[in-house]
Design a protein that fits this description.
By secondary structure, this protein is mainly alpha-helical. It is about 50% helix and about 10% strand. The protein has 15 helices and 7 strands. The chain has a 3-stranded antiparallel sheet with strand order 1-2-3, with helices on one face. Strands 4-5 form a two-stranded antiparallel sheet. It has a two-stranded antiparallel ribbon with strand order 6-7. Helix 4 packs across helix 6, helix 5 packs antiparallel against helix 6 and helix 8 crosses helix 11. About 25% of the residues are buried.
Amino acid sequence: MNLRLVILEPKVLADGTHKIRVAISHNSQTRYIPTRFTVPKSTNLKNGVVSGVPNAAYINQQLRTMMNKIYTFFDDLEDREYYSCSQLVKLFTNKLDKGSIRTAEEIAGEMLRIKRHNWAEDTIRMHKRRSEMFIEYAGKGFLLSMLDSAMVFGYRDFLRKKGYSETTISMYMNTLRRMVYFALNHGYAKFEVPPFFDYKEPLPIVRDLALSIDQIRQLRDMTGLGKWEECARDIFMLSFYMCGMNIGDIIAQDLTLDFVKFIRIKTKSRRNPNEKTEFTIQPEARAIIDKYLNEQGQLQFYGRTSKKSIQHITDEYLCKLAPKIGAERLIYYSARKTFAQLANEFMVKDSVIEYCLGDAVSNPRKALSFYVRANKRMADKAIRKIFDAVASDKPMELLIAEMEI
């Protein structure tokens, strides 16, 4: 294999400049790898040396480095004589790309392109929006390898000036941290000192979104509601009676069966396919399902069947019910929080709560988790314990006291 630096006269660029290329000759063929350097005239490159431009010394150094890398790639190949010239170009181009320094835009785009196979579309859009925010701060064309601790703190202050909450800022900072790790793992950036070395993530604020047992009873028994308020209440209660399931998980189930068996859509890409949650559909949930189930076995809330359209109902109307039960805030997620909190207060084991919620095991490396697992029988028993308490008219203090006897 022979290498040389060339300019192809017919391929002059639109602005009249010329791109320098590496000509690779092998097995009686010649192919080209474009470099990132251009010169004003073809005469600026003579005998493989750039001259007559302000940064000629730097360009020559970078071109020599690039050619040395290509020779190293070739020397490491076995049976190199069997490669065609085109195959070598593809191989070298791929290896050079992997070792190149990239801009924040390029790294974000590459990360999302790869993660698209594992992340949901909503997650992709969320990270795209957050990476664009960093690019707004750092500027287009910013090389991520230039990120340092001062810029990390500067970006945090930039987000604060925009009026974002500390929780939202943490989400944006985590996306930037993910970009840095991705760039390091793929050789797209190098840091003498990790940019997040001095940055300490603030402790998350635990949102108090769970309803008390009295509030969940009030919501369940509420009358005189408008059509859409009643619908929002029913959707919320259905989630509660399905152990806090998300709308997407609920509508994906065959609700004509007596049970559900699923892995949460939100965590499916990183879960063991054998770790499914299974529990019986309780009578309280069945009553709501039958109220809205159409002939095709599909939940239909006054014509709305998609996840997005059903979420619109809860987003718009649940907040109007909060004052009626004395809750500061009521959102769909409160159903999941309420189920988990009540289960905890009724002394249900953490492993069983995690199982019912469809969450991953909190500590998969814990030795005991290799030997014991929660199962459907345990889940059904715990679920019934919670729902029977809600169905009674006993105060929480009495319910807890009876368990302690």
